[in-house]
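dumping the sequnces here before i forget
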Amino acid sequence: MRMKWFAAAGLSLLAMGKELSYTDKGEMVFPEHYREWVWLSSGLGMSYDATAQANSDLSFDNVFVSPEAYRSFMATGTWPNGSVFMLEVRASHNRGSINQAGHFQGDLEAIEAHVKDNGKWAFYSFGKETKPGRLFPRDAGCYSCHEQHGAVDTTFVQFYPTLLKVAQEKKTLEEKK
Amino acid sequence: MRMKWFAAAGLSLLAMGKELSYTDKGEMVFPEHYREWVWLSSGLGMSYDATAQANSDLSFDNVFVSPEAYRSFMATGTWPNGSVFMLEVRASHNRGSINQAGHFQGDLEAIEAHVKDNGKWAFYSFGKETKPGRLFPRDAGCYSCHEQHGAVDTTFVQFYPTLLKVAQEKKTLEEKK
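..and the predicted 3d for all of it:
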């Protein structure tokens, strides 16, 4: 039945149960197929620092979520245990091929993960590597910022336009700025 | 066997054979699950017009490809018949929630498709609708621009960083600017 549901929803089978696993040192195993997961949105040069330079070394942020978590969110507006978000940071370029204005994406700069396990969220850093990711220390700024500002269960659903509508419908959006 | 392959590759089952179909008027049926397809890249305000204003009404371009076409490209560096690209254009916003600089994505502005069928490519326009898409006339600029500048078989692989590496490895990149 579960496989049938996945097939009907057009979602990945491989990903089931393999999105989140750890080494015996407690590092997160790199989810090598994350670019085939469900993409949520991309931003360019986003910053909560108003003094950030608008045009210096802008990076794109691409966010992907594991297929099973996506399915659950579309049905409930909430994230189940085992949810994995992958943040991919890429360089931006202005001129290239026929492009004369605006920005397109270039080389990988960093990969980070945000995962929910046993009811708790954690962040892992992979850098540019596919080796297991290191846990961000619990006092790192990512934890407090996501807790204070993430609109659904510490995640930035306010920046994912298609999920935002689901959270509004399901009334799971928290009043955060 | 084919289903097994799809499962092993983590790709969609639903999408098989349903990505590209037409009404009896020759319009393209809207592929309602395209946001669960494989995302290729997003650009912001891209233009081949050097006089384009850098900061006025910038839009994001998000490109998705049908899972079966993606699988084929990763194996061969080429696009099979039945390949479907979906271009989603969204508004960009600068200030919102905690964001003070840079751009995040907003409302849908337009959806277009680029499809390969019987060896020929065609473009369809959906606007903001999920109704069947109208064929762009053959003298529309999209055809000549993609033919002249698309780096692989009229597609802009030069702007999709992960596919660009595959095309380089498979030696399917055409010498275009």
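The first strand of chain A starts at residue 38 and ends at 47.
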